[in-house]
Amino acid sequence: MTMSISKYSMGVGDRFGLEGVAQLRAFQAAKHRGVAITPVWNKSNREHSLIGTRPEDVRAEAEAAVKSCQWRDAYFVDADHIGLATVDKFLASSDFFTIDVADSIGKSASDAAIAEYVADMQRFAGALRIPGVAEPVTVTAASLQAIAAKYLFAVEEAGRIYRHIAQAKGEGNFVTEVSFDEANTPQTPAELFFILAAAARQKIPVATVAPKFTGEFLKGIDYVGDSQRFAREFDEDLAVLAFARQTFGLPASLKLSIHSGSDKFSLYPIIHRAIKKADAGLHLKTAGTTWLEEVIGLAAAGGDGLAFVKALYREAYGRYEEMAKPYLTVISINRTVLPTPAEVDSFSAQDYVQTLEHNQACKRFNIHFRQMVHISFRLAAEKQAQYLALLKSNRASIESHVTDNILKRHIEPLFLGTGG
Ligand SMILES: [Zn+2]
């Protein structure tokens, strides 16, 4: 039997590996309210190397959480954003693989491969009508040639990575995502259709596909862009997936994956309406906000916890370039409106929480401060023994923040269509 993923799933990250139970409680609460969402614990190679964790740590955390919560439904461990150079150490512990081929976009496939692909796709030449897409797509030999030049090598690369994983784990024993979200430009719905065609030709059983959407998906803050335009594009992408499933025999469960960078609150009602209307599935991948909830939980606890997160900010502020370097394309921090470390030192517990917590209605909330703390988890890793001790001695404060964040800010508006 082929392993498949259910209609709704959500990826959660956990930098320090202690919040698996608190995260899973949010999924249990959703189930209790009648909506089944499969948890997927994701961690990228970059994150492992910045913190010093290993893929098997994520597997151990997931299994411990599942056991402790008596979770009897499916769950997955995602090797997030892997390529041929990084996948091997994830093979034993992951059963969900996010094959990232964004870096291969624009590299040229062989002339023969391009010619063969274009010849095969000629059957769509003319005005291609995709049910649910407003305008017919004009398909010509030249437009197919252009799509092939841009994407064919990348999809071939995805095929190479898929076959490498399948050789180690056996076909059907893992879920395959193909991601293009870290590309420089968004893919149009027409491009997505022909990318899926190429994936089917590579015999990749794509379960989830992560395109780059229009607009900015920055770390830990809301969507920046034209949300009406996003809504149209998202509807059309759903229509393309439905059509591609039938046309190319891709898995019936094929669905979109949104690498949200977390907290795209203004998009959640739009996405909720769209997936309900289309009766479509969805994978939402979040990242890093569990770490922010740990910081919030420590700040709220006062005492040593608050002192630690104040010192962390002072350090981050002084080492800004170093913290920002791996994230320059996914953050937008205006340093002139960051509070100074001296100001933060004078914060009460409530001041710190309100400045950091993603509550756009709160006057104290500062998205620059939030992004700064978001990218500074490495500083906690540098003082790991002290940090982990604080996480353990402030469990109650932290866990309620972690669970509530996932349940109330993400699951409710996106999957349940309530709250938010
Ligand atoms: Zn991504």
Pick out its properties.
420 residues, alpha/beta, 2 domains, eight-stranded parallel β-barrel, two-stranded antiparallel ribbon, globular, binds zinc ion
Chemical compounds bound to the protein: zinc ion
Quick one: CATH superfamily of the largest domain? Answer: Aldolase class I
Q: How big is the Rg?
A: 22 Å
Mean of residue pLDDT? 96
The largest beta-sheet arranges its strands as 1-2-3-4-7-8-9-10
Please estimate the helix content: 40-55%
Largest sheet: 8 strands, parallel, barrel
The N- to C-terminal Cα distance equals 38 Å
CATH architecture of the largest domain, by name, is Alpha-Beta Barrel
Shape: globular
Query: What's the total count of β strands?
Result: 10
Strand content: 5-15%
Global structural class: alpha/beta
Number of helical runs?
A: 17
What is this structure's SSE topology?
Layout: E1 8-12, H1 20-32, E2 38-44, H2 45-51, H3 55-68, E3 76-82, E4 96-100, H4 111-121, E5 126-128, E6 137-139, H5 141-169, E7 175-179, H6 189-201, E8 206-210, H7 227-248, E9 255-259, H8 268-278, E10 282-285, H9 289-301, H10 303-318, H11 320-324, H12 341-345, H13 349-356, H14 367-374, H15 377-382, H16 384-393, H17 395-416
The protein binds zinc ion (ZN).
